[in-house]
Design brief:
115 residues; mainly alpha; two-stranded parallel ribbon; 7 helices; 46% helix
Length: 115
C-alpha cells in the first residue's frame, strides 16, 4: 500500500489452507478484482486454471516468489544482472533446487495452448 497509493488490498491468505471451499469463499467474498497466487511454479498456474471459473476476480497472476523479493525477504540480483534481463538466471544459480521446477513450464504452456 505504501508503494502503490490508492491500492486496496482486500485480503491475504497463506498457502497452507487445505480446504479449497474456505479458500474460494474467502476470495469471492473479498471483492477482489485481481488475484495474485504465490504458490510457486507450476503449482500456482495449475491452481489458477483449476479454480478461475468458480472465482469472482477478473484477472489472475501467478507471482511465484515476487512478494519475497518486494518485501525484502529475498535479495534481488545486482543491478547489471537486472538490466541484462538475467535476474531469473541469478535466482536459479542462488537457488539451484528451482531448475527442476522450471522444466515443467514448457509442458504447462503446451497444455494451455491446446485448450
Amino acid at each position: 500500500e505504501e508503494m502503490f497509493p490508492g491500492i486496496q488490498i482486500v485480503g491475504t491468505m497463506h498457502g497452507y489452507e487445505k480446504d479449497e471451499q474456505v479458500i474460494k469463499d474467502a476470495i469471492n467474498q473479498s471483492g477482489a478484482d485481481i488475484l495474485f497466487v504465490a504458490l510457486g511454479s507450476p503449482a500456482q498456474e495449475y491452481w489458477i486454471v483449476n479454480h478461475m471459473h468458480s472465482l469472482a476476480p477478473k484477472v489472475y497472476q501467478g507471482v511465484g516468489g515476487s512478494f519475497d523479493v518486494i518485501s525484502g525477504r529475498l535479495k534481488r540480483a545486482p543491478h547489471l544482472v537486472q538490466k541484462l534481463g538475467l535476474e531469473w538466471l541469478y535466482r536459479l544459480l542462488k537457488e539451484p533446487w528451482r531448475w527442476k521446477r522450471q522444466l515443467a513450464l514448457p509442458k504447462f504452456l503446451i497444455k494451455v495452448i491446446r485448450e
